[in-house]
Amino acid sequence: MKFFTGEIHNSVFIGVVIDDKWVMDVKKAEAKLFELETLPNSLSECVKIGDKFVEHVKQLLDWAEKKEEERGSYIYPMADVKLLAPIPKPSKNIICVGKNYKDHVIEMGSAADIPEDLIIFTKAPTSIIGHEADVLLHENVTSELDYEGELAIVMGKSGKNIQPEEVKDYIFGYTILNDITARDLQKKHKQFFIAKSLDTSCPMGPYVVHKSVIDHHGALHIETKVNGEVRQSASTDLMIFSIEEIVSTLSKGMTLEAGDIIATGTPSGVGKGFEPPKFLAAGDHIEVTIEPIGTLSNRVK
User: How far is CA 6 from CA 9, 16, 24, 78, 154, in A?
Assistant: First the structure.
């Protein structure tokens, strides 16, 4: 199941995709089909409900099939919907893993820089934008804006000291994240927060795909294109630290909460890794694809 936050007729709603051509407004469907209003107003709050939310939406989809004459009031053509970031305003910083693919570590330095332990930084929630939103070039503060296509985890329930074999039980689903980075600010300030947190530097989406759709998160293909040119192409099985290791390590002594977003790192092929570097420019079109999630598309302005 693909969940999202969308907008239609200037109204924001929580949706689920139907056959890639239609979408359901789950709150309107609930009110129409069940004459109930139990669902929260944000996807992040729905995620906290966990499996009960997913089962409820499945019931709504089943009922909608039987009541085709009423579908027009809560089912819309996908083409009419503007897709926002699935979780537009998380309550905490986005947690990010650095240097998690060997080839990326080498292109940014050398094999001597391959980490033995998890490297973590964060991005400000104010950096988040959605599918097809513009990435600002920020020419007044940086001349080295770069892209980083990544798989991101959305936590489904809170936990601490989570064991690796338990991790999947704590995950709600997966989305795509583009960790836009100002390389010159990254070098200047040493710590990554400023370089990673400029406004519009965290495109995310277009959907959160429930974990039941993805059989093995360790074998997903990530591809990033800029203006149609393939820049990044790799599998998540090349991660230095697996998703199980990432979540388990982060949760040691620190509570991870439902709705937390964890970006798992980027493979080689970033702009800075080329000679000469291929930093982003105005008008560039960035596409990050991870199947079965989809494609996150943004243009630089």
Answer: 10, 10, 10, 10, 18
